Fold this sequence. Notes:
The chain is of the alpha/beta class. It has helices at about 1-15, 35-40, 45-50, 65-70, 145-160, 175-190, 205-215, 230-245, 265-275, 290-295, 300-310, 325-335, 350-355, 365-375, 390-400, 410-430, 435-440, 445-455, and strands at about 20-25, 30-35, 85-90, 100-110, 115-120, 195, 220-225, 255-260, 280-285, 310-315, 345, 380-385. It starts with a helix and ends in a 7-residue tail after the last helix.
Amino acid sequence: xxxxxxxxxxxxxxxxxxxxxxxxxxxxxxxxxxxxxxxxxxxxxxxxxxxxxxxxxxxxxxxxxxxxxxxxxxxxxxxxxxxxxxxxxxxxxxxxxxxxxxxxxxxxxxxxxxxxxxxxxxxxxxxxxxxxxxxxxxxxxxxxxxxxxxxxxxxxxxxxxxxxxxxxxxxxxxxxxxxxxxxxxxxxxxxxxxxxxxxxxxxxxxxxxxxxxxxxxxxxxxxxxxxxxxxxxxxxxxxxxxxxxxxxxxxxxxxxxxxxxxxxxxxxxxxxxxxxxxxxxxxxxxxxxxxxxxxxxxxxxxxxxxxxxxxxxxxxxxxxxxxxxxxxxxxxxxxxxxxxxxxxxxxxxxxxxxxxxxxxxxxxxxxxxxxxxxxxxxxxxxxxxxxxxxxxxxxxxxxxxxxxxxxxxxxxxxxxxxxxxxxxxxxxxxxxxxxxxxxxxxxxxxxxxxxxxxxxxxxxx
Length: 461
């Protein structure tokens, strides 16, 4: 035993002196050992790293110790493969983070259950031109779409650190780039903002992003009011309390978040208009349609609509930003990974195809729910087609076998065709004898002659 202890100490010393970063995770992805080279490369003292969970997500605050630990996270399949190669990141405060290739070696007990993961990192950083290229696992084909999406989300969090706290603003389509620019402008101006979009499109998340991106100096609390369900009395009491606590001379200016303001009861319009005249707070509002349009329809007070709509941000339905669906789905997966349960790498290409084919009437909220259901069902490193909810499968099957378009039936035309066919049939049966054909049809001869002319079976005289 003494010899074994001496050997273990010698091995530990050799690893501590190694130039390559080396670290060890336990079965719960908790970092239980890292050598000096690893701590220096990551930019965090070893004693701060120890005990951190290395989970596969990009949700941690950039520059935090948690973010440094997530940079060392193994791809989920590393626990089941013999040796997996993937990219890891170091440099806690580096922009961009420094990336290296690492080999993940699972350590299992005699029953095959995971004990931990030994990770050996290359000595040199990847060339700068390769820093943003996702490194696929050895067991996956190039390109690795899940790794690419993970890298894109990581870059978004790095670039937008301290500006956006909501993943609902992730997106590459031009519409979402404009929305982010509008959020920046709204945060800088402190003006009243109206956020318009369909249900589930992330309106409340966008309002919160504006609030948290606003300079905190003098920023008061965020106070939400759901206009669709709150009675007039409660709305009035809340506004009166705000006026009492935050008079116009107050250095602190709270932010009032009016959810579904387009559904504000008509009797509450006057209360809000009075508040607008002596307001000491900023207002962020969400609605399903433009308040100015409602005002033109005489469904909303014009002056109140103008006051609430100093800046207007329009959010698109998810069906109009399909290019962002894979990115958003990956972001929702990584939010679930961050909770510390099982770790999922992302979606299979076939599963992403199914998500893209769906219409998403519930927008972002429905996508988040679908991802949560599939995540719960998945038992491998990727969410596959079989893990997706039944609604996605039904929509896919319906698209594969579309309904025939309905044919319009014009009754008069239909009856005229039947009439013509009966006249022809009577003439054939009567061998062209018009008197006999008239008897077969139960018509007078003059009536039969008129029908023959109408159907082009007899020239007019």
